[in-house]
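Bumping with the actual sequence this time:
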Amino acid sequence: MLDLKGRSRIAPILDPIAVVLSKARLTPTVVTAAGLVVTFAGSILIAAQRYTLGAGIAAVGCILDAVDGPLARHQGKASIRGAFVDTMSDRFGEIAIWSGLAFSLREEETALMLCLFALAFSLLTPYVRAMAESWGAEGRGGWMGRAERMLLILIGVFAAGIGGGHKVLYPVLWIFVILAGLTVLQRIRKTWEQLER
């Protein structure tokens, strides 16, 4: 949802950052890689149950990842290869965050299963879009694009770190799994309706 409607709203924030990074002679690929490394670092802290710091650092990684597109356009370097690298970075980042959270909750069976379902739906959402677009259909849409997924889980983890503990994480995980699962179904239905019979 934010992926479709929010880019124009956050452009005034991301574009100046892209200009600064461009003046520092950083390439979009370097920024993408830096964002992924920072996200990995945050995920390790989340795994160690240092939720507040881990979520904050992972959020910085996500912001860096969001800047690479505007930076590429600013430098005139937007390309299919760049888009591919960005997409793969997104997936690795999500896997890292969910792996870190699953590890931190490894002794709680229900929470662990919710993390696995959340990761599965997080990967299925862009997969359905990719398959739809490979057949000439529009595969975007749904309630939980990547932006919403990152916002929800990182806010939940941050809240758990500042005092909510696992009592906060459980409802966040349930909400995430339900909305992400519905998003997958929304995209499947939308794709199905566009395909030739």
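The tokens above came from a reply further down the thread. Residues 2-194 form a domain with the Four Helix Bundle (Hemerythrin (Met), subunit A) fold (CATH 1.20.120.1760).
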